[in-house]
Amino acid sequence: MPLQINDVAPDFTAQSTEGSLHFYDWAGDSWVVFFSHPKDFTPVCTTELGAVAKLKPEFDKRGVKVLGLSVDPVENHARWAADIAETQGTAPNYPMIGDTDLAVSKLYGMLPADTAGTSEGRTPANNATVRNVFIIGPDKQIKLIIAYPMTTGRNFDEVLRVIDSMQLTAKHKVATPVNWKQGDDVIITAAVSDDDAKTLFPGYKTVTPYLRTTKQPA
To answer: Which of 9, 33, 44, 45 is catalytic?
Structure first.
């Protein structure tokens, strides 16, 4: 079965640009953004890796660790990093897994489990499905999965927005409405009774019995 939201993220050990990486140990109690790439030296991924490097301070202040993966050897990642620094202004400042045996890609359902061989000789088209973003919570459960086509660059401002929403929900009994951003009103979840809402969210607004809004909790 493919991985779904609320599934436990599979643990693994793999080689990375920062040495051998045991995922659960490395993640610790942090949130994690794990994003994958079908091949080194691909143009769209080059722009993405540079963009995420520039956003690293934003992930850091949210307590989020970033982990990349590409279906190529770690030695290639080092050469690719030089291109990323030259063309995007910043090299990756987070670990990048070299998934040469395709083990992690198969473990996370990005390639079929029966895919044979290694990364050697494979093309971006062979690996087109290795284009996922996983957000994983401190409880090691998968909170979000997005799969992108190779021709569409990922929107990491949206990834940050989703993290803000999920972290807010983890602390308070609220959900976020369509196109929500920091500072906008939020929705009180159905798990909160009207009596409790009066205490937790004084002055909240009832739009319908099932849609109650309030100011974003501090």
So the answer is: 45
Could you please state the CATH topology (level 3) that the domain comprising 13-154 is classified under: Glutaredoxin (3.40.30)
Does the annotation mark 41 as catalytic?
no
Instruction: For 10-54, write each residue's pLDDT tens digit.
Output: 999 999 999 999 999 999 999 999 999 999 999 999 999 999 999
Which has the closest alpha carbon to 90: 98, 81, 99?
81
Tokens of 89: 């202004």
Query: Which residues, other chains included, contact 5 with Cβ-Cβ below 8 Å and sequence gap of 6+?
Result: 142, 143, 144, 145
169-210 residue pLDDT tens: 999 999 999 999 999 999 999 999 999 999 999 999 999 999
Cα 136 from Cα 127, distance rounded (Å): 23
The CATH topology of domain 172-214 is Antioxidant, Horf6; Chain A, domain 2 (3.30.1020)
**Location of each CATH 3.40.30.10 domain in the chain:** 13-154
Start-end of CATH 3.30.1020.10 domains in the chain: 172-214
What is residue 211's three-state secondary structure?
strand
